[in-house]
Structure formats: structure tokens, C-alpha cells
Design goal:
This protein is an alpha+beta fold. It has helices at 5-18, 20-40, 51-85, 98-103, 115-166, 171-183, 188-210, 214-221, 224-228, 232-239, 263-273, 305-315, 323-328, 348-362, 373-380, 386-389, 452-488, 551-568, and strands spanning 279-281, 288-291, 294-297, 299-301, 334-335, 412-428, 435-451, 493-500, 504-505, 523-533, 536-544, 574-578. Among the domains are: 1-43; 173-239, no CATH class; 267-412 and 452-471, no CATH class; 490-509 and 517-578, no CATH class. Keywords: Coiled coil.
Length: 585
Amino acid sequence: MPLKAKERAQRYRDRIKADTDRHKTYLENEREGWLKRTNTGKVKSIDDLSERAKRQKCKAWKKASQRYQVKKRETRQIEEYIQLNSLPTSPVDLEPPAQAFAFGVGPAPRPPNNRGRRRMHHLNRSRTVRKLHKVEQELKQQERLVEKYKKRLNRLKSKEIKKMLSEKDSPRTKTNRLIREFGNGNMTSKVRKTLIFHHTLVEELKQKRKKGRQAKLNSRISGKVLAKYRLLDEARKQLKISRRQLQVKGGPVKKQGNPGIPRTYKERILTFYERDDVSRIKPGKRDTITKQKNKKQIRLLTDTLLNLYNKFMSENTFIWVSYSSFCNLRPFWVKPPSLKDRDTCQCKRHENAQLLIEKLVSLKLTSSAFSSVDTFVDSLCCKFSLECMMGKCEQCQDKSIKVPDENVLDNRTVWYQWENSKKSVVTAKKSSGAEEIKEIKIVVKQKIDGSVQEMIKCLEEQIPELCEHVYNLRHQFHLSKLLKTYCSSKSDHAIIHIDFSENWESKYGNEIQSVHFGGSHVQVTLHTGILYIAEDCIPFCTISDARRHDLQAIWANLDPVFSYISQHYPDVRYLHFQSDGPSTQ
């Protein structure tokens, strides 16, 4: 059987140790290597290490020393065991006289043949070492078991002691101990104090019953402990309570406190939070939230909680709920919008009409079923057609809003509209530094104060353009769907839907403070789009540091898209473009 690498290395080291010169040369080489590694810094001395490394090094030295001592002790025990149990050596054969060799008399001497005996001695020694090693392993295992059961016993004892110390004596045991101590003439002051405590407690319970807390006090007294020691009659006599009042009731006594907000109020608040004018539902498939295995679609509040509270109280004047209770009763799926939840690409016509429609619903001038722009437009037209939406239908061309009560037309109200406005700003000239007033155009959400009739008139003025706008929107969506369906079955047709994103600002991972101000940050333009080819849907995005949005810039951004189509889809011959249609495009 070939030797293992470890055995070959051990034999090589044994041969070196057997030769004095080779062993000396080996030690010198090792010493030189050690000095070389120390001088180059590969091996650090204990003084050059950190405090933590010193502690780790000392700990490793301590473990190595312990292993060395254990190995040394085991070797010594093995040698002693072998000396005690090995066979005595055989006597050496007498050598023939020297004269016989000198004069050639007799046969030549032969060395004794002890190979078989040495082999048996080696086998016995190996067998003994293995047996000793096995016994030592069994001994260590038994010692570990003994230690384990010792610790388990100590834990059980300590647990029982703690249990005995923590347990309280029963009332009868305490009473018997007190009687025994009193009979021996001791603990007179303790007996006196116990009796004073008894009479004081009874008197206190009587006073509590006189203050109108009879039901609660009776339930506290009529416990199972009094019934166990047959003291219910004694308690009835001392506290003057009838038998009917001292009935043993199982279970804890429920706290009779404030009943809280009525259930009808909670349902009304929940319905208010789920209204479309109070919160809007998120349309995404993953825009859900789950609590206690109850999965709901997330809704986002359209206003602050304080404003919504005032709105709720103005609509429900017959009930009163505090602001904190109103906030606490907000459902978990109705959340305030965060920065990422804001809608920043809303249509101005839709939003202005939606603000007026929501105000009509809140004033109860129209049904809540028509609280959205689409449902409101459908309620004004007899059917969804080009003639109806363009005001050419004879039945519904005179679109007007009917109010159930005309007495409210003169009432004052407030509504909001997105409007273009001008703002004066003060700037300083770069050359002279003199101040200069400039007018800039801004878009604000304007608060308008007027009568209900004026608000309705404002909405009626928007209805023709709104109906035309809604029709165009639906018609475009319908044609886009038909075009995608047609191109999905044609391998030579493709659709490119493009749109410009807003300019993005690039930032450094770590930057100095002065970079934050001025024009140090570079802005880039993202040209996003999506490519429909057959059944494939491929999104793409090009990035450019040029902030131009004109025709040349659009074509430059689409040039790599054309190269991709010609390379991967050579059969495409017709391209259909879809965009939001800004004036520059």
C-alpha cells in the first residue's frame, strides 16, 4: 500500500533528524528564513502587534502550550504502560572464543536473527497503543456525560429552590403558624398588627360599598379563595352583603369604562375615507397592502387630515368626533401620499373639471355616481358618438347642469382652478448690480370665491371643450389598441411609442458644498420609448447631455433605434410612430 503524503513527509523529517549534519544545516536554513521574514516585516514581533492582536496571540500560545503538555503526558503514560506490559528481552548468545577466529578453527560467527521477534514486539506495541487510545476516548466521553448530568442536577435543584421560595403560603398555613407562635408566648406584636389589618380592611370595604361601587366590589370579594376556605358567610356578616350578591363568578372582572365611539360613527368615518373625493385609489396591480391577512388596494388622501376632518364635521353636524379619534380611525389602506405617489402629469382640462365636479358632489348638487370626469360626461350625452361629443346631436346639444334646489344658487362657496398667472420678481443685473423687476409666467392652483351659480356657469363653459377632449382621448386609445392588434400579426410592421422625459440632473457620489449651488451639475435628457414588433415589446431609453427637444434632436436619439431594428428585425418595412404630440414634434 503506498504511503500518504503526510507519512512520506514524516519519514523525510526523521531521516534529517537521524543525520546530525543535515539536521544542523536544516535548522540553520530555517533560522535564516525566519530572520529574513522578520526583517522584511512579514512576521511581526509581539511588540509590533496591536493590543487585540497581542491578546489573540497570547491566547493561541496558551492553547498550543496546553496541547503540547497533554501530548507529552500521553506519550509518557504510553511509554510507562509499554514498559510494564512488555516481555523481558532474551539473553544474548555467547560469542565463540577469539582464538577460533584467529587460527581458523570452527565456523565463522553469524549475527543473531531477531527480525521476527522485533516484528511481533512492534505489532504488540501498536495494538496496545490503539487499545489505549480507544480507552482514553471512552473515558473522555464518560467524563462529559458525568459533567452534563451534574449540571442538569444542579439546575433542577436551583429551580426547585427558587420555586419553593417564590411560592406563598396558603392563608390557613399562615394562620396556623401565627397561632403556634402566639401559643409559645412569642410574636405578640405581630398578632396585634394582623388583627388591626383585618379590621381596617373590613372597614375600608364597607366604606367603598357606601360610595356606590357595590357591583364591582361584590364581584371582587366573591372570589374562589373565600369559597375554598368557606368564608363567604363570614364575609357576608362582616360586610353586610346578601347571599345573592355574594355569588362566585368565574373569570376576570371586566373593566366598565367609557364605551368609546359608537359603531355607527366608525362606519360613517370609514365610508368617508373611501370616498373618491377624499381619497383616490392606486391603479397598480402591486399597489396593495395586507394587514392580518386582510388585503386591500391602497388609496391616497387628496388633502390633509385636518382639512378632511373639518370637511367631515361640516357634512355631519349631528355627531361629534375629536380630531385624534378621526385620525386613529383612518383605515390602514388609506395613506397620505408620499413624494413618489404624487401625480405630476395630470391634464389641465381634466383636473379643472374634476375640481368643479367634486365640489358639486360635496354640495350634494349632483349624484356621487358622477364624481369622475368620464361618468359626468357620459351623463350629459345620450350616447358616446362623434355627434354627441361635438355638440351636433339634436337631443343633447344643449348640455346644462340641473340643480335639484334652485334656492342654493345664490349661496357663497369656494373652489379651486389651475390657472396661468404672472409674478413679479426682483433680479440684479450682472453688469451694474442694479435691481430690476421682471414678470414671469407661472401656473398656480387658484382659490376662487363666488356663488354656486357662478361655479356652475364656469363648469358649463368648460363642457364643450371637455366633451371634445374626452372623445379625442378615448378615440386615440381605441385606435392605438387596434393598431397594436393589427401589427402583432404582421412581421413587416412595427410601432415606436416615444416620449421625452424631463431633464435629469447628474450628481456626484461625494461632492463639495460649492458644487451644490449654481450650474455645476450637468443636466441630461432621457428620450424614453417602447418598440412593438410582432409579439415582442422592447423598451428603450437614450441619454444625451444636449437639452434640445426639436426635430433634429429627436431624430438623433432615434437613430440607434433604427439601427437596432434593421439589425435584429430585417423584415420590418413600415414604422408607425406614436407620441404625445408637442408643438416642437
